[in-house]
Amino acid sequence: MRTICFYFQVHQPLRIKPYRFFDIGDDHYYWDDYSNKSIMRKVAQKCYLPMNALLLDLINHYNGAFKVSFSISGVCLDQFELYAPDVLESFQKLVATGHVELLSETDAHALCSLKSNDEFARMVKNHKEKIKKHFNGYEPKVFRNTELIYSDSIGAMVYELGYRGILTEGAKHILGWKSPNYVYQNAIKPELKVLLKNFQLSDDIAFRFSNKTWPAYPLTTDKFVNWINMIPKEEETLNLFMDYETFGEHQWADSGIFDFMKALPEAVFQGSDFGFSTPSEVLGRAKNIAPIHVPTPISWADEERDLTAWLGNDLQDEAFEKLYQLEHLVKQIEDEEIQRDWTYLQTSDHFYYMCTKFFSDGDIHAYFSPYDSPYDAFINYMNALSDFILRVEQHLKKQIL
Amino acid sequence: MKVLMFGWEFPPHISGGLGTACYGLVKGLVHHKQDIIFVVPKLWGDEEPLADFVNASDVTVDYREKKFREIWKNLTYLEVSSFLVPYLSPEEFKKYSDYALHDRTDVDESIFSNKFEFSGKYGKDLLQEVSRYALVAAQIAKSKDHDVIHAHDWLAYPAGIAAKQMSGKPLVAHIHATEFDRSGESVNKPVFDIEYAGLHAADHVVAVSHLTRNIVINKYGVHPDKVSVLHNAVLDASIIESKVKKKVPEKIVTFLGRITFQKGPEYFVEAAKKVLERDPNVRFVMAGSGDLLNAMIKRVAELRIGTKFHFTGFLKGQDVDDMYAMSDVYVMPSVSEPFGIAPLEAVRHNTPVIISKQSGVAEVLQNAIKIDFWDVDAMADAIFALLHYQSISKMFKELGSEELKNLKWEHVAAKLVTVYEKITEE
To answer: B395, A315: Cβ pair inside 8 Å?
Structure first.
């Protein structure tokens, strides 16, 4: 049987409050509790709660023939605990059905896989523990890195941590003529299997669904099933990976996105030879075809599918370098607050806000940023980071004395 | 298209930004093969020959034309308050208005003569010149063939209206600054009235920013469909490599402009205090003069930051360029700035800029830090960041010059031509 593999990314960053330079050395709390809470409540009402309820209905209705997978970042789980225990509970119910798979990722939705093996391992371990704690001992088996960032060596690192499967983007420039609808293997560690996102069909739902200038608008389940039937018979897996906030937040309820998802399983069962699987099931059944070579990191962001949304301009690079210069110092400190802030300061979103590609992908960046400009984002981050650096130095001095 | 354009000044003899903007626009229009008749109250003879220049002082008005009676009727209200002098400081204004109220008794007859020598300045007889200019405009509109009329700011609006009455051709009112920008909420009613009349008589209004467009819509009640935005551009986008080196070890943060309410100098002083409390290795410079200068000096003394805060007085020519070149940060905290070309000059000197969100230039310049003029905390924070986090200045230098290259008068003129085409078709 051919199969559709749904994976939804659930993530909310911990946003930094307006932090002025006069606060440096004085105010050591950086997080914008008010906006973090209000955004979490807004997204909970618009997306998490209604969509979780819908998925639970579908799973029950089809007795598990319909299934999905999630990756929930640690920084998001922390905010569920604080601001949306109702959302956490609804995810717990979904996982308890046994037809929902949870994936591993870095605790802070961080970019540390690009910088430090140690930090990466620490973040993955912490995330694993959080999942275990919240989901009744659940242990994720498949990995997905922040924003689907992947390279051969990141894959090898993930393999060393004990994983046998990873998700990433089916970027055109790495696939060439190849299809994303097969299971591939890591070029360094062949035992690590790689699932690639079919960006065409994923983005039809995630980005184009409500776009009235799109020739295929409006997207109906019939149309969609028609498209998946056009996939050559020998291609067995269709990986539909997207932000969970697609449902109700990026695509509003009045666009019909919920109705689309509600009707999709029936249309797929009736109109095609596809079913639904979780990543582990896909990997378990897979006949490996070929290695996929990814010498430089890819991601699922923007047209380029590279790292330029987070790193590469001077602002991002200065902030990133200054942050990771602290790694060996922070490792010597056993202070809960220092460790917490160290983790949260690594969240990739802080660097995303500093992106200056405003003339091409700027629109989508602006939509996701709480700042007026990348420069404002940078200044605020650097102010908070400057205070953090002072704290780290002071702690170390104290420890020596 | 033949454009009959009314301005008040044209380079090289200018006293404000209006002349420079007119020059850029005319240059852009010439690039797009438009014929321009440019009328100014007084020609000096050394203007670049871009247009068919008409010296209003040379024009003989022939009062036998019937329509003059009608035009004059519409102009009489100008005479009532002709002592009004909008570009003077309050002290000077008081001097002139005392003179006008006590010493003058009636309207100067000379404006009805066949010929009239304009000063072309912003002096005490301004209103009288404005109304005479309108009569001349009507005469020119009668004798010179044209397809569209274009008037720059209120000084030329009565001329634009009169020309339209004479020839019946469509009128574009270009607004570079409104009375609200110049005077805050305490507007000079006669000037407002002229602006109002011009904006409503116009077939289309062109504003230099969305900020100004909103004022035109909200304060003058002009229908939004009638108002387009044409941002100003730069004449020369090249980067200026200066040899000038500052002679002090500290970083220099500069305010450069008229020290008046409109420019928000007091917010700069307050932000300086906040920065100096945390980082004494900075010097602040306030370059320029204006009616708030003494108040600023007083405030700086009161805050005890005099050794780090300097006043240069009015700067011109090379001194202005040197000041930009020596600065590590340029701040324009304007309370209300229809456009504001100065930050673009700073960018040409590779100097990072902080501009208020209440400026039109903020709508076109991406590589700048934008703050609310009143938010001195944000201003201080931005100054501190530019002085301490190197990568922003580096990015501004790399991207800012690229951005300038896109701000061309040719592009502005191209949009203007479509406006002309639209209203002449209607």
So the answer is: yes
pLDDT(A357) > 60? yes
Best B395, B398, B405 residue to mutate vs chain A (most A CBs within 10 Å): B395
ipTM given for this complex:
0.76
Contacts of B389 in chain A (CB under 8 A): 318, 378-379, 382
Q: What is the pLDDT of residue B188?
A: 86
First to last CA, chain A: 66
Tell me the whole-structure pTM to 2 decimals.
0.84
Q: Which fold has domain A2-292?
A: 7-stranded beta/alpha barrel (3.20.110)
Q: Are A340 and B330 in contact (CB under 8 A)?
A: no
CB contacts of B392 in chain A (<8 Å) are: 314-315, 375, 378-379
- With a CB cutoff of 8 Å and minimum separation 6, the contacts of B264 are B333, B334, B335, B356, B373
Domain that holds residue B47: 2-233+409-425
How many whole angstroms separate alpha carbon B209 and alpha carbon B192? 19
Residue B238: inside a domain: no
List of chain A residues whose C-beta atoms are within 8 Å of the C-beta of residue B369: 373, 375-376, 379
pLDDT tens-digit series, residues B104-131 = 444 455 555 667 777 776 666 777 788 8
Q: Where are the domains of chain A?
A: 2-292, 314-400
How many structural domains is chain B composed of?
A: 2
Tens-place pLDDT, residues A84-106: 999 999 999 999 999 999 999 99
Interface test with A, best of B275, B281, B371, B381 (most A CBs within 10 A): B381
Give, as one character, the DSSP assignment of residue A46: I
Q: Do B381 and A379 touch (CB under 8 A)?
A: yes
Give chain B's count of helices (H) and strands (E).
Answer: 15, 13
Name which residue leads in pLDDT, B182 or A331. A331
